[in-house]
Structure to design on (224 residues):
């Protein structure tokens, strides 16, 4: 089975710019979640998508938004980038009624 | 709100030593508890889980027991190997495995 894949692996952006990160879910999974992991910290839940709709959100501002597509792939969009947005962004897929989540290797975003 | 507190790191041990990484939690409901491991340059991998009080999760020689009375889920291994060097995260979820609340992580280094 194909695991969770994320692209790109690394990205450098300038403050104020916008960024789109992409994720392909593991085969058979229909939910996708996004997490932000700052350096030396544990991952923090951004939001989850199920059946192409947001289904839970963490404490992140509206400039963090997402999409889930019919093939269960997903995007995370961040507008008006700030220096504190520099982090590893992890995508995880799963099924709504059972765990566990399967994580991708992440996208390392650096905002300068 | 829900939270997880982990033993401060980093932890450095010699090969074949006994390992304990402490984890305590606060939750409003009845959480499921998890240990995830993150190897360098990789995403998170589920190591073990427990879904109700007194359950013991185990995998690859690691064990953790869900202790409701002490709100703890300590990770143990009887004899660590160099290949166990990684960052370990304790996590909980309430009402499903999709939204995980992570601890800050404990970096473990095993010396030969």
């Amino acid at each position: 089975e194909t695991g969770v894949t994320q692209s790109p692996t690394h990205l450098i952006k300038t403050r104020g710019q916008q960024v789109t990160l992409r994720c392909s879910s593991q085969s058979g999974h229909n939910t996708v979640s996004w997490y932000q992991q700052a350096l030396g910290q544990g991952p923090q839940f951004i939001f989850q998508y199920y059946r192409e709709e947001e289904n839970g959100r963490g404490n992140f501002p509206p400039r963090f938004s997402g999409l889930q597509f019919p093939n269960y792939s997903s995007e995370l969009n961040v507008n008006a980038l700030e220096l504190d947005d520099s982090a590893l962004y992890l995508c995880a897929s799963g099924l709504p009624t059972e765990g566990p989540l399967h994580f991708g290797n992440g996208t390392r975003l650096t905002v300068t | 709100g829900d939270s997880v507190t982990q033993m401060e790191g980093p932890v450095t041990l010699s090969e074949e030593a006994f390992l304990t990484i402490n984890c305590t939690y606060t939750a409003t409901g009845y959480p499921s508890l998890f240990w995830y491991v993150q190897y360098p340059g990789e995403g998170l991998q589920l190591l073990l889980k427990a879904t109700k009080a007194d359950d013991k999760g185990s995998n690859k020689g690691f064990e953790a027991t869900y202790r409701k009375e002490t709100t703890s889920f300590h990770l143990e291994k009887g004899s660590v190997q160099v290949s166990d060097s990684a960052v370990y995260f304790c996590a909980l979820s309430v009402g499903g495995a999709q939204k995980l609340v992570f601890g800050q992580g404990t970096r473990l280094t095993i010396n030969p």
Q: What stands out?
A: Chain A has no helices and eleven strands. Chain A touches chain B through 28 residues (CB under 8 Å). The mean pLDDT of chain A is 92. The radius of gyration of chain A is 13 Å.
